[in-house]
Predict the 3D structure of the following.
Amino acid sequence: MSEDYDKYLKSMPIIPDVATKILSIAEDKLDISFKDLEDIIKVDPSLTAKVLKIANSAMYARQREIKSLQMAITLLGFKNLKSLVLLVTASGSFARSQQDPFYQYFWKHGILTAFLARHMAIRCNRKDASEDCFIAGLLHDIGQVAFYNADKERYQPVVTALIEGKTPVEGIENKIYANDHRQIGASLLKRWSFPDFYVDAAREHQSLNITSPHKASIFIVSTADLVSELVRTGSLEADSEHLLGELIERVELTDSDFQYYKTSFMTDMQKDPLFLECRSLFGIRD
C-alpha cells in the first residue's frame, strides 16, 4: 500500500486495547477464555456498565437480571458477549461524530446488516458462524469511514450516492482514489489485528469470485448487506439486484425467507430490545 493510502488508515481512531485483547482470546478453551474475557472487561468500569446494560436488553437474557460480568458470560456465551463488547467500543471510538449524516447512514446500515447477517446464518444452518457474521456485517464497510475521516469534502460524492441509495459506490471511489473502501477496510482491520474472516469479509463482500476460505459466511454478509439497503430504499440498482439474486441462490434462502427479510424483518426488529439498544448506542435517530 502506498504512503498516500496509508494516510487513510491513520485517519482512524486507535482501537481500544480491550477490543484487540478480546479478539485474540482463543475460543477453544472456554474455561480459560471466560475468565480472560471477564478480566479484560472489568478493568474498565464504564465499559462494564454499558455491556451489562445492553446484555440485559437482549431477549436471550431470559427474564433474569444480569448483575455481573460472570453472569453475562454464562448466560450469553463467549461469542455473544464479544459482539456486545465490540459494539460498545466501536460506539465509543466514534462518539463525537454520531450526528454527522454520513455516520448516521453508516451505523444505521451496519447495525441492520449485522442483525440480518446473524439471522440469515441461523436460518441457513450456520448458527456456529452467526456471531462472526454479526461482527463482519457491522464492520464490512469500515473503509468508507477511513476515506471520510481523511477528507470529508473529497469523499462527499460517495456520501451523497450512499445516502441516495445509488450503490454500489466502488466505481465512484475508484475514480477519486484509484482504490475502493473494500481494500482500505481490509487493510485497516488487518492493522487492528482482527481475525482473517473479518478482513476477508471487508475485502470480498459484494463479490461472487471469493478467494477466502470463509466464502460461505462472506456470501451471507453480502446478502445481508444488499437486503439492508433494499429495506432502507425499497429498491436496488440493476447490478445490485442481479447480484442479490445470485447471492440468495448461493446461501440457499427460500423465496419465503427473502420476502420475510424484505417486508417483515424490520418490523420485528422494532420490537427487539437489543436492536433498539444498539441503535441508541450509536445515536441513530430514525
Observations:
- DSSP finds 18 helices and no strands in the chain.
- The mean pLDDT is 87.
- The chain has two domains: 12-93, 97-272.
- The radius of gyration is 18 Å.
